[in-house]
Amino acid sequence: MTESSNRLIASLQDDALQHWKPYFERIALSQREELFEPDDPLEYLWFPENGVCSLVVESSSGGSVEVAITGREGVIGLPAIFGAKHAATRAVAQMSMSVLRIRVDDFMQNLHGDHPLLHQLERYAAVTLSCLAQIAGCNRLHRTEQRLCRWLLMVRDRAGENPLPITHDFLSLMVGTRRSSVTEAAQRLQQRGLIRYERGTMAYTDIAGLEQAACECYGIIRRLYAVLEHSC
After folding, report:
1. 120 found inside a domain
2. Is 36 helix (H, G, I), strand (E, B) or coil?
């Protein structure tokens, strides 16, 4: 394992990195590749180095909504660290990305005593729980256009890609609303000069305008993760 851009891994001292090196493998994920589905065994932890991965909750009627976005600030499979054996959500890569993967058993067996990585993960878990609550409220209380702006900004903060490879069908799954509603919202943002959408890609053209159009949830979530970054 060479130097990593994942912030949790990068927070480790060199001797700790050398200790973990035999247990990690770097793999490439393709766009829309699934890491796990609901009820799958949680066998691995995934530490993104770029790109973003969505955690998606699905209903028996076929509806779905994204409840979390994870990028290089965090880890996918977090419940396994606290004893969960099976996934409760679907995890899907939103774009081609690189991740460091480690078996849960190897990870837990090497967390001896007062381990600095465990402390970082505990801080990350606390921030993640707060963000989950914020996004749950956002999905219930705010308009599609506001939620779309919040989502686009959160993806940009984590992936840094412009334009994004995205379709309206996928956006509707992430925002948890009908495709027609997402299309109308995206058209309004494009008319205002905030984004540009064409041929399955969406480009950011006015970040400040997107921040003004987003609900307050974006600012709250950004501040929560800023505190986490300062502790790394």
Report:
1. no
2. strand
Q: What is the DSSP letter of 131?
A: H
Residues in the chain with pLDDT < 70? 1-2, 113-114, 230-232
Question: For residues 48 and 6, is the Cβ–Cβ distance under 8 A?
Answer: yes
Q: Around 143, how many Cα atoms within 13 Å sit in the side-chain half-sphere?
A: 9
- Tens-place pLDDT, residues 53-108: 999 988 777 777 888 899 999 999 999 998 999 999 999 998 899 999 999 999 98
Number of domains in the chain: 2
54 phi and psi, to 5 degrees?
Answer: -105, 140
DSSP code at position 44: E
* Torsion angle, alpha carbons of 148, 73, 136, 134, to 10: -100
Nearest residue to 75 (alpha-carbon basis) of 158, 172, 166: 158
User: Which residue, among 157, 160, 147, 159, has the nearest Cα to 217 in the 3D structure?
Assistant: 147
Q: Tokens 């609550």, residue?
A: 133
Assess contact for 92 and 33: CB atoms under 8 A: yes
* Domain stop point among 79, 98, 115: 115
Distance CA 160, CA 195 (A): 15
| Strand ordering across the sheet containing 64-70 | 34-36, 90-93, 53-58, 64-70
